[in-house]
Protein 1
Amino acid sequence: MTPRFSLLLFVMAGLVVAFVPLPVPPIAPQERTFRIEAGQFAYSPSELKVNPGDTVTIQLVSTDVVHGLYVDGYDISIEADPGQTATLTFTAGKAGSFRFRCNVTCGAMHPFMIGKLNVGSNNWLYRSIGVALLAVVGVTLSLKQKT
Amino acid sequence: MAKIVLTRNPFIKNALKSRYPQLAVFIVMLVGYIFAILAGLIGTPVGSHNFSIVFVWIAWWAILILVAVPFFGRGWCAVCPIPLPGEWLQRGAILAPPDKKPKWLNLRVPKMFRNIWLQNISFLLLALFSSVLLTTPNITGIVLAAMLFAAIGLSTVFERRAFCRYLCPVGGFIGLYSQTAPIELRIKDKQVCVTCEGKPCYNGSSAGYGCPWDVFPGGLTKNTYCGLCMECIRTCPHDNIAVNLRPFSADLAKPSTRMDEAFKAFIMLGSAMIYAGVLLGPWGTLKDAAYNVGSSAWFVYAIIFLAIIFVILPGFFTLGILNTKNVLPLKQRFASLSTALIPLGLMFWVAFSLSFVLTNASYILAALSDPLGLGWNLFGTATTAWQPMLTTVLAPAQTLVLVGALIWSARTAQKAANEVKVSSIPVIVYSLIVTSIMLWLLL
Ligand code: SF4
Ligand code: SF4
Ligand code: SF4
Ligand SMILES: [Cu+2]
């Protein structure tokens, strides 16, 4: 194999690992409700797990000052005043792992008040590690070829 | 790949040789820096609405780590305001070349400090307090002012830029990572230097100052300690200095054998991973521990932080390269092979910063109009709402950066392994493992 051909092969394999759609086992969508307590500077619970297609309801309760909750990728948010409960309902249509974060300045560590919403399994992570593995094998073999 | 001599272009050359363009940038930078100090001290205590936090830790940091270091190496040091007041005082002049003997102590820095261990320590000190530093305008103001005064103090005691060379917490990693940049300042012809009388590039002349960074330009082989201050272009009477465009990471082909630099690579790699976990992760307990400086949780955090950097990361690395049968001492193999972590660490920082910067960039517009958080609206942008940018491309971009980092690191490992005649596989496996951990932390 010429080096150029094997490079092409590895790039194609990388694209396959990164983008080929996986069969999704059909799971009946459910309704899920989470009660999240927000306090400086964390959410509890801070990691949510749902299935794609689920209808998710988040009840945000603030235990100290005003906090918010903004979901990356979904671009939706709510705000909760101290002691009050704010409710957000949405359909988890996009699969993947998304950060949610406070969007009301609430104190020093506010920019780092972050939680995680996992919709289905975090396939992009596994795909990324797969591509990394492939890249390493590719580089190692390319050296073997040269010597 | 050949080098392109940028200074062959008369426009570039004159712009670098003249002191005026640089001075103009210096003045803007210095004004901005002093304003950042003042904003930190007298502006609102709310970090995300204070110029000092937003412009230093979001805007400056983004430009530094995403653009300046990867593409221009020590380019930031060429325009950095921190050493200027000290340097002007030391010279007794802002523009005019020296005509008299130095009036200050002008001592040589003691040999035991002539390495980057102090920079490793100063970086770690800031890193351990970073959750407070990054979010508290007061503290940022004080730290910025302290750096300015430390630089002034050292300028009056020691010769040249002692602060930059041996103490600046930022300068250490900029230097390490500048080796990966596609820009270099080098001599054109070694023979000309050999016969050059008086070596004005190092000793100074009526045309300018001897190298402020205490390097002999004629002997430059890596970017690490050249601050791109352009003095040697001004002083070399034989027009023997060039600024070149070159392939990325050219300096890494000849691995360093210095332990201070090797540990700098581990410090930076580890810090990027710890920040990704602590600041961007969903674990509130970690954030609390990192933020509450002085509490017992913080001490545990500090110990774990240092253990990761000085024991766990270098420990596994050493285990990996232990078995490779070789006549060279382990220390030398350790230092040489850790070169592979230089591009890896830089790209870890890029991946981490992409997330932090894209999420918070919208604060820049608001802080521009209301830098002190006093309700001003200078440019009509003070009410710009916080809005994360490009959240959907962030994850793919981070994967791209980290996989690219891994390939870059693996190739660097192969070259370094060749130099010390060992297998590169353990280092590559190590890089793969830490990259996977970083992917897990960020994605
Ligand atoms: S070493 Fe530090 S103080 Fe000196 S020029 Fe570079 S960033 Fe500025
Ligand atoms: S002044 Fe120019 S020619 Fe002389 S040693 Fe320095 S770089 Fe070389
Ligand atoms: S004088 Fe030349 S070698 Fe020394 S720091 Fe400035 S640009 Fe680099
Ligand atoms: Cu907040």
Protein 2
Amino acid sequence: MSANQMSSGRLSYSAASGASWVGWTVLVLVIAVAVPLLIPGRLLATVNQMLIAALFALSFNVVWQQMRLLSFGHAAFFGLGAFATIHLMRAVAAEAIFIPAPLLPVAGMLGGLVAGLIIGYFATVRTGTYFAMITLAFSELLHQIAPQWTGLFGGEAGMSSMRMPSLGLAFGSVEEVYALVVLWTLAGGLAIYYLGTTPLGRLAYALGDNEMRLQFLGYRTRHTKTLVFALSAMFSGLAGGLFAVVNENVDYTVFRASYSGLVVIHTFVGGPGIFLGPAIGASALTFFGSVTSDVTRLWPLYQGIIFIVVVMFVPQGVIGFVRDYFAQALWRTHWRQSLLGAVGVLFIAAAMVFAAELLLAISLDPLLAQGLGDGSVELWHRRWPAFGITTWLWPAAAAAIGGALIWFAAKVTDTPARRQNGEGAL
Amino acid sequence: MEPVLCLTQVFKRFGPIEIIRGADLKVLPGERHALIGPNGAGKSTLFNLISGRFAPTSGEIRLGGRRIDRMPPEQINRLGLGRSFQITSIFPRLSSLENMRIAVMSRHGVKFSVRRPLSAYSAISDRASAILDDVRLSDKRHVPAGELAYSEQRALEIALTLATDPDVILLDEPTSGMSRRESEHMVELIHRMTDGKTLLVVEHDMSVVFQLCDRISVLVYGTVIASGAPETIREDEAVRTAYLGTTESHA
Ligand SMILES: Nc1ncnc2c1ncn2[C@@H]1O[C@H](COP(=O)(O)OP(=O)(O)OP(=O)(O)O)[C@@H](O)[C@H]1O
Ligand SMILES: [Mg+2]
């Protein structure tokens, strides 16, 4: 059943009438324009990162959702796109050529596409784990080479450049950069969606379902795989290009394996079976990562825990879960259980955060380590007896209450057989 | 007459076990040819060899005079050979109609196109719908293939095979799992769709075989022990002992 849930990425393109298209377009544009007016500039920089992460996740998911191939090396395309763009920016800054600033990310697309064709050609020799290994190997290769190759990748320090004014815009303010990023992200997202409807895209879905059958229908499936992989890489390169334009600096760490892993986490937390799932997952996690950076250094830990919990208990992803929940109108029949369960989850999350932060504070406290001081530790502007029963009673109690709530909610819920709902990608 | 499909001394070994042992088979152009034999005789394996899923250990397979025994399946398909699978092999996430579009478009030269949505190619959609009509799946055109009933999936399986417009059609137990009525309709459809083409069909239901086919070959333990007109096969002593007697008694 859960395997079916994960594969619920079937798209039917029949519904969208002209009116609803216009409605959606207007809504999206209104939001895009409203965002910089409503939120402060510091947050707008975060929005830029969220949009880039969203586009990156969407591009990654082309390979997974359509062809059921798991790439563990998509940072390679993001990174090459970023470097291609930064080189173009340097050329523009040196007045070697003139390219209007809004078109700079095109270099990223080209870089991603070319790299995708080459790496895709080799990776598609294999499927499954071996495919993932080959993609990982290529990106690790770049990660190793880049810091040595100063001319191309700028060594350890990376490459820097500046956005040059063009078309009457200075591209100095975060609002102007936001405009560029949001337009490219929307265009890229639409193009990826559209790709899924074309003969090539539909072929990629069929390939993900049953590659062998395609061969007996006359298809050389490796061509399809290479081509779709390269297009996915192209959009990753676009995301990388936007990254370069925003940061005006790129270094070899964009090739790190953990960055390839991050896009996998973003995608699966959001839900790879729904078109917007990866984008929402990426935006949300990037947002939380950014806003919590002042308060905790443990965000990667929490993100990892979220990933594990989602993959274990809601394999269709958070957005997939929400869709199923509303498609089955579970809120109508099960709102009490849902509420109990949600509160239970919050309790457990609170317990875990408290315990983790406390442990970190203990491990970092200079006095405790030497057995000095009064044996207390500071957390959230309060001092807690580090090994006192009363301190640890809090998370223990919260976890127990949370567990009990979830247990109770699950007990009184006779989960209706998860109906396979036939519609809807968006 | 030159056979359109010709197997000479074909062997296939899986590890230590020889499944196909010197099979000879000639299928003539335009005929409807049944391949029968007991369970495990190697009928599906023979189909896999002909269609390029496996390469034979030794021996020769010719399609229209050309050696095909080392070709990949897509190339054999493009030479005009289409096959269905005994174990249903469809695209579960795609709707029935999209399953058909995928099969049909392989002959329309738009495979890798990104110029328009697939649904906007009306020639492909028309042909896809027409075949769906033929197999009585029009009502289910928008249902994901993975959610169709078993017999509907079987019908889609056959429809996929016919959609690439092959000249030589291999069907592996096309009526298995179908009700009497569905099966009758399927036989009628196969008869109609294979008009002017060549059919090689594996079928356990002898009434279907006698109704549909001009010639029969009998495969036992990886060897074709008899080939001929239905009446001849019915009378053949070796076939009776090896196969027919047993099937008819519990059919
Ligand atoms: N890929 C394979 N590897 C190993 N053994 C195989 C393979 N494919 C088939 N066999 C074996 O070959 C034998 C013949 O199988 P095959 O499916 O060709 O029989 P069949 O005549 O189609 O039988 P049925 O009427 O049950 O469909 C069986 O014993 C099967 O286990
Ligand atoms: Mg068989």
